[in-house]
Amino acid sequence: MKLSEHIRVFWRGIRLLYEMSPAYTVLFMLEALVSAVTPYVPIWFSARLIDAIAAGRPVGALALYAALTVGLTFLLGLLVAWFRERESVGDKELSQNLEWRYAEKTMDMAYKSVEDRDTALLRERIRKETQTGYNYWYLKDGTAALILLTTQIAASITLTASFFGVKTIPLWMKLALVGGVLLTLLAGILLKSRSERIMKVFFDRLVDTNIRSEKLGFFISGYSNGKDIRLYGMAEDLAARSLRFGDEFCRALARTDIPASLLNSVGKVFDYGLRFGVYMILIFASLRGGVSVGSIAQYVSCITLLIAAVTELVSFVQMTLLNDTYLKRYFSFFDIPNDMYKGSLTVEKRDDNEYFVEFRDVSFKYPHTDTWALRHVNFKFKVGEKLAIVGMNGSGKTTFIKLLTRLYDPTEGEILLNGVDIRKYDYDEYISLFSVVFQDFRLFAVSLGQNVAASTDYDQARVEDCLKRAGFDKREAAMPQGLDTPLYKDYDKDGVEISGGEAQKIALARALYKDAPFIVLDEPTAALDPVSEYEVYSRFNNIAGDKTAVYISHRLASCRFCDKIAVFDAGQIVQSGRHEDLLADTSGQYHALWTAQAQYYTAE
Question: Is the dihedral of CA 503, 400, 409, 425 positive or negative?
Fold first, then answer.
């Protein structure tokens, strides 16, 4: 990265830090400034007190110096303590805001980015780097350190400037002191730089290990995984895996700490050697009567602080430059564009309800693949019809729905609603037309009512009606808190565990509650037996009324009541029509699938 890019990334980070928590940002900067000044108060006043004692000044003057030394230090200490107490609250606020930014960004992304594996890995990496301390936490600590150290350097130089005006100290000693300071700083810079590079390599190499270790920990601690862990005797193997991750980390840390510690030890030799030299120069000056005892104490303390501050400042500048690379990666996730065209047209409202959806020569590839998930799909159906989409696993059924609902846009071709490309419609208005229950639907560890409404605020009577229509009313009546009963025990010990079939009914009720013109069931009952699945689809077909309903299944009997059936095979629609007509075509794919499935339910 060029210096200009470092400055741009750093400044962007500071601006975002302030936007997330303005008061916190101001507080930690003020705390750094006050902390920097605090040690110089007793240094300066103590030097004056020592000189006053040596000069035989009155007790009152001595008491004043002592009072100022202790009193000002005490007040500054209280102020720093108050800042830090407020910062502890700010730390939690910042942590929550950082987590919320991930959630907010994920919800704002185009769905293709959410599903993209590279995006998911990038998200995991920057989160792990944040937990390690890089990007935003280090930006906060590094900024505070830069303020503190630059203030200390300025104060140290101010309080040691008079040293070079002492006439009793030979010029060569002054030059030797300057040379010693520069040599110590150079050694500290080089040694610290080397040490930091060693640590960077250590952390970079362990990113993947840390991610895998964290995932393993989540799996082991997840109570829903406890059944499999016990029934399949996985505990010993999982424990061994966890220990291997820990051993790998410890071995890598040991290999890193030893050379880093040696480098730091060499730096300490230079540091304390310079301190000894400063003492010798000042002792020489005091014996010749050119420097007071108080000034000796002041110079020693200030030069010591100066050396430490400059060394640390260089180190923090180096670490800040390094952290900018982590910040840049952090921003790269949040800079991922949502390039879904949003459109602006309002969906037409027609009195005759004559709406048509048409797939016109639609082909689609998922990102980073060369395989066509759909190829040259041409299909048209009328809004209000009951459409069944059937076919073997992997034939393109779910991809068809993702394109219909604009989770993705076609790679080639176009999808039309009433003759208009759906990409031209207002995106939010268009997707509001659909209630979808995917085969991998999710319920949340919140109340039953909130799960159905997908909101914290909801119409209680309407939720209960939807649950009744979905066949969940009797189970709801048995729940201890009715609609307020929390599902699962993630956040509430009184949460209710529900079966897979019950979860499906709640998901169906959620689709009903949205009351959208299109209802899509994408194999949400795939875990049920064919007879149960048919019963669910038949009941839901009656519930749907005059809405457009799309039923997706690889089991043909479940959807034979539909107005139209589309048969998918290898990403193409190979047949379409009514059940009876398709079954009559003995050479077609539908007849072959029907016969293959029916043999398991026909008595010999």
Answer: negative
Same domain, 141 and 80: yes
Domain encompassing residue 449: 441-515
β-partners of residue 9 are none
Residue 81 CA to residue 88 CA, distance in Å, equals 11
* Order of strands across the sheet that contains 420-421: 372-382, 356-365, 412-417, 420-421
The tally of CA atoms less than 13 A away on the side-chain side of residue 192 is 22
Q: Do residues 145 and 316 lie in contact, with contact meaning Cβ atoms separated by under 8 Å?
A: yes
pLDDT tens digits, residue range 386-421?
899 988 888 899 899 999 999 999 999 999 998 899
Segment 25-79, tens digit of pLDDT: 999 999 999 999 999 998 888 888 888 887 888 888 889 888 988 999 999 999 9
Decide: 539 and 512 in contact? Cβ < 8 Å: no
Q: What is the C-alpha R_g of the chain?
A: 36
Q: How many degrees, rounded to 5, is the angle at CA 231 between CA 228 and CA 235?
A: 75
Instruction: Measure the CA–CA gap between 167 and 304, rounded to whole angstroms.
Output: 22
In this structure, are 13 and 52 located in the same domain?
A: yes
Instruction: Answer for the pair 452, 513: CB distance below 8 angstroms, yes or no.
Output: yes
- Angle at which helix 136-160 crosses helix 22-37, to 10 degrees, equals 30
Total domains, the chain: 3
DSSP letter, residue 483 = G
- Alpha-carbon distance of 368 to 120, in angstroms, equals 14
Distances (CA, A) of 355 to 358, 515, 519: 10, 18, 15
Q: At what angle do helices 500-514 and 530-544 cross, to 10 degrees?
A: 20
In a domain, 357, yes or no: no
Assigned token pair, 425: 């419609």
User: Are 569 and 589 in contact, with CB atoms under 8 Å apart?
Assistant: yes
Phi/psi of residue 95, each to 5°? -60, -45
70 and 2 in a common domain:
yes
Count Cβ atoms within 10 A of the Cβ of residue 24 and give its class: 0-12 exposed, 13-18 middle, 19 or more buried.
buried
Whether the CB-CB separation of 46 and 297 falls below 8 Å is answered with yes
Joined together, the tokens standing for residue 209 give 């290990």
First to last CA, the chain: 75
183 close to 270: Cβ distance less than 8 angstroms: yes
In this prediction the pTM is: 0.74
Give residue-wise pLDDT tens across range 549-604.
Answer: 888 887 777 777 888 999 999 999 999 999 899 999 989 888 888 888 766 655 54
Distance (Å, rounded) from C-alpha 347 to C-alpha 430?
7
